[in-house]
Amino acid sequence: MSGWQIGGGLVVSEATRRQPSAYERLGGDDGVRALVEAFYDIIEQEDYAADLHLLHRRGFGIAHSRDEQFNYLSGFLGGPQRYVMKHGHARLKEIHEHVPIGPEMRDLWLRCMREAMDRVGLDSELVSLLSRHFKAAAETSRNMD
Length: 145
Prior knowledge:
Layout: E1 4-6, E2 10-12, H1 22-26, H2 28-45, H3 50-58, H4 62-76, H5 82-87, H6 92-95, H7 103-120, H8 124-141
Antiparallel strand pairs: 1-2
Helix pairs in contact: 2-4, 2-7, 7-8
């Protein structure tokens, strides 16, 4: 039997050991912060992201969005629930109800996030995992056809 032993003889298989969260795999606070900073740098600097930049500027601004995205992603990825502690929930539909998000804006957000993941140098397995989660979250945030 493969596995390792705990204390008085309980054998735990490799499959039952706790896997690190996406938050941990990303590098905790530092990794999440780096991803968020890369994402918003793209929004502010890349011509193709101009519509997303304008959308954020119409809201509370990019600085606010950087902080709230960090807070949200920390919990979303399995780390501290900062956004929930601050706002009492993390419901994407409700968070974005005032923002017009159709398929084009959803896809632009995903494109910018994929570029951010590339810029911070995440391994392909983590990119694949995060991409699946981000795709579902982006679709949940969509409120227009």
